[in-house]
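Question thread 4412

I'm putting together a teaching handout and wanted feedback from people who do this every day. The idea is simple: show students a protein as raw sequence, then show them the structure tokens that encode its fold, then repeat with a second protein so they can compare. Below is the first pair exactly as I plan to print it.
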Amino acid sequence: MGIGKLIEEVGGAIAAEQAAKAVDPNAGILVEGAAAVAGFMGVGKLSDTMEAHTEAKRDASQDAAQDAADANDPAAEPK
């Protein structure tokens, strides 16, 4: 786990806790703690999903570039 990911997760925990306080100013410690855990875990999952999506797009663009290079290479075998 990198420091950047940890900072994102802590930020998510703080934001979720603040949102819980805004919705219910009388929220107890359990509600605030649950919100913090949910924010921490949610940001982690969102970050992982976005990273996987970015890698998939990068792989697709590399495959397309390779296919274009193969199409322009007269020595390449046809598929």
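The second pair follows. I'd like the answer to focus on this one:
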Amino acid sequence: MDTYFYHQIIRKTVIGFGTLFNNIEVRHTDENDNNVSAIRVPLSYAPAQKLLQRARQPDLNTKVQTSLPRMSFEMMGISYDPSRKSGVTQSFKAISSSDGKSLRKVYLPVPYNLSFELNVLSKLNDDSLQILEQILPFFQPALNVTIDLVSSIGEKKDVPIVLESINQSDDYESDFNSRRTIIHTLRFTAKTHLFGPVADTTDGLIKKVIVDYYQDTNVSTAQRAVRYTTTPRAIKDYNNDDTSTLNGEINDVIGKIVVSDASSLTVGTIIRIDEENMKINSVDQNVLQVTRGYDNTIRTLHLHDASIDVINSEDDLLIKPEDDFGFNDEKIFYDIGGNFTSI
């Protein structure tokens, strides 16, 4: 552990928890149900006893006592959560958010639970009920808060904040000289993740995935029958090959186009004209029947002599990590009992 790192995950989780209760109001009405006052309930990061002590024994340097209602919260503890454990030696690669290009290697995060207490202090019971009704409906019993856990790789996760319990105390039986204080204590658990150091890596991204399907659920004796392979497929041209040009203007509806030279174009090939992709369905001399707007591109007008680029395996090798891309899929079926070479 000789590498310094600090992602501020615990700090961000504490801030994320506190911001949930920033804009709670208490309103008082008159006998005609008209609003006579609206108070935004102050929120502090402090133990409840500290606020309670200030309310009961005001600072002699101030002219007024600490007003109620108020809220406070604090982090009570940190504990490991084995129910969310993942492989400790597994890692993943991510693009650095600073330049959008370099790769960073990160080990899978470790699940930890942060315990919080939220204390609601009030003098009037109706004030407490107003505050509680602005909090409880959002927890069923969990509320997800999106937190940017590791800014350097843009790793954002939804952190469930679970409402565990609600307790109430009321000192109405105190002497007449004591100020009445109603305290509701809400206990929460934030299920966050802690990340280790983020390291630079020279390894490339995974560009090929192979999955073998078994013919039986007992993998110790079953034979694999299907191999599924997928690789990234470019959805734009990277090498500007200018394979041909458009012979005549086409609108955004025409499915039959004429090109200057179709000798290098075959059925199934994906071509790109301006910003639109098209898939070739048939070739008749220099006339192509195409599917317009392929790869979710937008059909549009194209002018005479517009360049036609081919999107092929050469472009697949030039895909950048931050680009959108599709997938090339391949399935290989094997005879039951047959053998094939593992990769």
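Top answer:
Good format. For the second protein you could add a caption like this: The two ends are 35 Å apart (CA to CA). The chain has two domains: 9-200, 235-318.
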